[in-house]
Amino acid sequence: MWIYNLKDDIEFEKGQLFTNVDAFRAVLKDYVIQKGFPLLRLKNERSRVTAICNAEGCQWRIHASPVADNITFQIKSYQSQHTCVMDKHCAEATSDWMAKKLVGVMRDHPNMTSKGVEAELRKYGVKPSKMQIFRAKNKALNEIEGTHAESYSKLPSYAELLRNNNPNRICKIHYDRPNLLIEPKFLRIFISFRAQKLGFLEGCRPFVGFDGCFLKGPFGGVLLTAVALDANNSIFPIAFAVTECENKDTWRWFFYYFQEFFGPLDNNIPLTFMSDRQKGLNLAYEEIFPDATGRHCCRHICSNFKSQFPGILLGSFFWKAAKSYDVVGYNEAMASIKDINIAAWRYLDKIPRSSWCRHVFSSELKCDHVTNNFTESFNNWVGDLRGKPILTLVDGLRRKFMKKLHKRYQKGCTLTANITPKIAEKLTQISQASRKCEIHMASEDTFEIGDGDRSYVVNLSKRICDCGAFQISGIPCKHAALGIIYRREKLEHYCEAWFTRDMYLKAYSEMIHPIPDVKRWPVMPDLLPKTVLPPPLRRAPGRPRVNRRREADEGASSSQPKRSSTLKCGNCGAFGHNKRTCKGQPVHRTTANKTTAELMTNRRGRPGRGMASTGLSGAVLWDYAEGAVPIVHSSQGSNHSPTGHNGGVNVQNNCQTTAAGSNRKRGRPASNNPSTSTVRGAGRTKSTRMYSNPQVLVHSTSDIAENATSVSMNAPPNMNSNSISSTSTFSNWF
Questions:
Q1: Could you tell me the pTM of the whole model?
Q2: How far apart are CA 626 and CA 635, in angstroms?
């Protein structure tokens, strides 16, 4: 019996056996793709398969039919010689065939890129197109993970398995079902595990960040998450939900089950929520948790602040005010903002200080975070799951949480110090910064620390410092660190218990139990509902966005850098915006003080094919005049005219011009009157009339020219296109 091996070439021989007709057809397709020739199936039935090479003159042929058992297939006749040319672009290599070859590889590497898929298919001697790669990749993923629509029907069974394998957890699924005659549609799901609940209540500070991120599947949706911080200041996810959108109603639903599962909470330490003030989040938790303290992400506040008051200086003072541990630094930063722009100061003064200013944070919480960046880190950590089907997304999050809890518990068991690694690293930096300070002893516990032009009082027994950092963060500041080092003590002894190894182990001591593979799920005949329809498909016009929209002050993505990040407005000339979004007055650009040479430099148009030798400095021959008469423009418009010629200067010069290309002149056809030519420039029209009398002088009548130059040319009476004599007046304004 023949067994296919990727590393070996497929070779047929007469009498070769195959398990059934499908196996023979599959091997035949692989053989055709490997050898690269067009195949024509003369007979393709369950009882016989006959195929030949479709190339002209090629004698290759194969015929197979079943043996006595009517199942096993055998090659009865075979002509192996090829006389055709090999072609790698074989029509047999369809996207379905490619998907079958990719299933095994993509099961181990589900995030394989298009280049990786192409490299894998080239092992079979195939050169796929981009569309074939796209289709084959999607078909392989659907084979592995299932389609997005079908995965919603598996959620009831998955929820039942969660209840059986993970006791004391919460899994709530909401359906949209107006009546019993309609199949239910998926609406929302909320999940949290007992290990997350106990880890948060026993090993984490009561500080939770909430955020939502869009899902990238065809049915959309939003992933709502709640993330805490462990003793190492690392993210500790405690709950998540998938909803149809992000608004006040969905967040209220989220907080309802959050309170049901985690409550009642300890009232000794105030529960603090960090949010971005968007889409009704803070309004929702104020209804469910009226006693909770709210913080607003300063990065989002700064983004809104910069959109109205742009400038690096204002932004730097904003962050100085937000991150200041004492009221003195805050007042100085706000005073600087007020001196620069009082409207910006009013904008920040309207926001409650307790939500964004570090110096008014609770000293009991021991958390000085002013941004919601740790929830953004969580969104980035689960980014590879955001485009998966709903069942793959939910179970993938469970698997990530399970692995992270066990991995960090193992890490905590290996710690030898009393504090966690990140806190120890931070203490090292603080001790180095304390070397620049100066200590003045007052008693064994009290010091006066000089830091530059300021001094701070430190009391180690009460663990306070005038700068405010010691009592708010729970970690010794550089002023307290100098006193501790002076007393020959260790800095870690003055850290709060929230940052110790014991609290770290408490957070990760519980486990999340695994779930069997979907193929091993038991049959649940009594489980309802049997079928769950996906939510309505809301497909927006245009190509779906994959990357998030970046803020105005964010840098470009490293994978897609911008060519230039500086904008200059063509209306007002300022930087930072363009002409379309300009709100200023247009800048009036005048040409009154410019010389003729400067004006001619900026003049649009095609210069002539030669220079006129008129004796005038910078004179240029232009072929914009009608007919065959060239026009000479002088750059000496700044010369003063003699008195008695009305501002004009008479210049007599012999001008011999060769006009061999007069028939190629552009513009309107020449006038029937050969003695008249029209000059058009800058929206004005000037007429110049030529006379046979060589001594007649004609002056320009243009009322715009500041200075006029009169040129008198002598020429014989018979005028032609090769020898031209005219008396013309040329204006300096173009």
A1: 0.70
A2: 22
